[in-house]
Amino acid sequence: MFSDLVQSYARATGRALAMGFTRVGLILGVLLSAVSAQAAWQDPLNTPALLTQRAHQTLLLDVVRADRRLVAVGSHGHIVYSDDDGLTWAQARVPVSVTLTAVYFPSGDYGWAVGHDGVILHSSDAGKTWVKQFDGYQANTAIVAAATKSKQRAKDRLEAAEAAGDDVAIEEAEMALETATYGLQDAQYDQSTGSTKPFLDVWFYDAKRGYAVGAYGMFFYTLDGGTTWEDVSSRLPNPDRLHLNAISMVGPRSLAMIGEMGMILRSDDLGQSWHSMDSPYEGSLFGLIAAGDKQIMFGLRGHVFSSVDGGISWDEKATGSEQTLLSGTIGRKHTLLVGNGGSVVIFDAQMQNPKASILEGRKAFAAVAEASDGNFIIVGEAGVKRLNAAGELIDQSISMAAGDF
Questions:
Q1: Which long-range contacts (CB under 8 A, 24 or more apart) does 380-384 make?
Q2: How far is the C-alpha of 285 from the C-alpha of 281, rounded, in Å?
Q3: 278-322 pLDDT, tens per residue?
């Protein structure tokens, strides 16, 4: 039923959610609204995640390494962590119950998680406990403020052009003012509807500097570890406010973002300025991973592209699969990608010899991380699963740690 609901919504929107899963995109907002209509509504941004012995079996949307620890995030504000390569898990204390879509640790102790309703969480103890730093109400206020400034700058530009009597400059300034006016109106409308837009990915350079990206071009920056967040979407050449699905470092000072309609944005100054890149694909891209001199991106219908020049040029890689790919990791010996319908694609260290398979149950998998023992941890609709280095399911019990409840 979950897949049917997602596919129905995807056909209606015709946007990046067409993959049928997309870290549940904006879908769970609709589903949660239907549930809350039957009971007294509590704002999930102010409702702590419920502790449960089945948190590792619920919908999880991202998993990463924090040194040797594994940390996974997902629905209902669930965050779980494991110190034994994914065999047993403990549930973290989380102050919200919104769906969490992504998590990132620039170091073993300091991590950030993002999700629905514009939430940003922070942990300073390797994922055991979390605090809320930011949410969609604050995001809307910041976006309106930035749009108001943008409109004023456009007005000033038009006045200067009129004073100079430059017809070409006047026409350009009028167009800029019209765009800025529409942008402010959109921001004010979004603010009136509440904290609705999700963040879809998060990346930090160190314990101070980081970015959160998301639906409808949301792009926020912090330089103080998340104490304050600034709307910097004006830095991006993204006038249509396309969804930003992933951000990753692709060079010593270079970042790349991918999103809807094959969009690739690149920065060579750690995100201060951005430009559009030619894309090898017109469909939506959902994942971007990098390690060493290797960069890989992927998306709809099993399309995979690799680069060895910092994401300047991309070569398509055959996968043997047409299943949408949502996440991946570059391991020590293999690169593993996962996605819809239980799909797994594994490449060797040279990004050759792809092997595509469908795991039993055909559940969608949203993320993968390599454990310290060389096996892989995958998460998705069926919670946590373990794969061996060949991409095969390990028939081994996974449980919550005893004594945590």
A1: 380/21, 380/59, 380/60, 380/61, 380/338, 381/2, 381/21, 381/59, 382/57, 383/54, 383/56, 383/57, 383/58, 383/59, 383/60, 384/56, 384/57, 384/60, 384/63, 384/72, 384/80, 384/86, 384/89
A2: 8
A3: 999 999 999 999 998 899 999 999 999 999 999 999 999 999 899
